[in-house]
Amino acid sequence: MLFSFCQNAAKKERLELGFYDYRGVSFVGMHYENKPEYVAHLREIGINWMSQMPFAFQRNGKPEIHFNHAQQWWGESTKGVAITAKFAKEIEIKTLLKPQIWMGGEYTGKFKLNSDEEWKIWEQNYSNFILFFAKIADSLNLESFCVGNELQPSVLHRANFWNEIIDSIRTFYKGQLAYAANWDEYRRVPFWDKLDWIGINAYFPLCSEKLPPIKKLTLAWKKIIPTMKQFSDSLKKPIIFTEIGYKSVESCAHEPWNPSSKTLSLEAQLNAYIAFFNAFHTEKEWFKGYFLWKWYPDPEKPDDPANLDYTPQRKLAEEILKKANKK
User: Fold this and answer.
1) Backbone φ and ψ of 245, nearest 5°
2) How many CA atoms lie within 13 A of 60 on its CB side?
3) In CATH terms, is domain 2-324 a member of 3.30.750.24?
4) Do 320 and 277 form a contact (C-beta atoms < 8 A)?
5) Which tens digit of pLDDT belongs to each residue from 77-128?
6) In the chain, beta strands by DSSP E
7) Alpha carbon 225 to its chain's center
8) In this model, does residue 230 exceed pLDDT 80?
9) Which residues contact 284 (CB under 8 A, 6 or more apart)?
10) Which pLDDT band holds residue 3 (cuts at 50, 70, 90)?
11) What is the rounded radius of gyration, in angstroms, for the C-alpha atoms of the chain?
């Protein structure tokens, strides 16, 4: 049924699917233990990269950062990260370790501190956090490491701190280094020259319609692409979408980071994915791939295909993903 629906969608609008170097998913660290078959399922749909995202907790306005604590979910623990990476490596799936700050649902791109003294405390705490996981990435021989995710206030105003962090990690970690910038932040990050590639969390607003046609979404991307290509060319660095995803709701491509609708629409999510692949299939010289947000370890989770979450699992969008990841 799902496949026939996707075939019908492709008939309505020509489906152009590129084959990218990075075909990744954001692999959610859950409270339950991963199993080899959970990771093996990714190979069945053509995935060759995963990002693992151990979270630290911070309150907005406070410089303290808490991580690697007893209440950490198994998938975000050091043990969980190591075992999941081992399962992945055994079947030639590479890992991007992408530690992130969680502020209880508040956007990290707008966090504030009250004084230079507090910023220095935060920087020491963040150094402890990110270096802890950089050393884990090194010890596990993980292929890539992300030094930060959507931390715009610090990145824009405390660049020296980030230069020092990157230099410090370079002294022992031999893999690729990246930073994950929000879609409206990436052109202002001052240290791309010190990294191996440009990471963008690609929640670009495309169209406010409840169910916009694929062609309209594709044209919206075509207006965005030239600026990204020019930026990539100017720095001589490839771009990878460290996150891209859409909830399965109406108007999911309007403000993908937080769509206002709670009305189920598997077709709206499907159209958004098809438009993404259509728009980028000819851009492989500078655009190297993506990490879809997000993917649950157990292929049977979530158990309700009509859920509204970002995952394409067990939805119409998963069929397009399978087609996109096969030569």
Assistant:
1) -175, 165
2) 12
3) no
4) yes
5) 999 999 999 999 999 999 999 999 999 889 999 999 999 999 999 999 999 9
6) 22-27, 49-52, 55-57, 94-97, 100-102, 144-149, 176-182, 197-201, 239-244, 287-295
7) 18
8) yes
9) 18, 20, 21
10) very low
11) 19
The pLDDT tens digits of the residues spanning 4-14 come to 445 444 445 56
Q: Which single residue is written with the structure tokens 């049977």? A: 300
Name the one residue in this structure whose structure tokens are 């105003």.
Answer: 157
Q: Which residues of 244-279 are buried (b: 16+ CB within 10 A; e: fewer)?
A: bbbbbbbbbbbebbebeeeeebbbbbbbbbbbbbbb
Give the pLDDT of residue 85.
Answer: 98
Cα 167 to the center of its chain, rounded Å:
24
Q: Are 283 and 225 contacting, i.e. CB atoms less than 8 angstroms apart?
A: yes
Closest CA to 22 of 310, 244, 203, 275: 244
* Tokens found for residue 27: 């692999």
Per-residue pLDDT, 322: 86
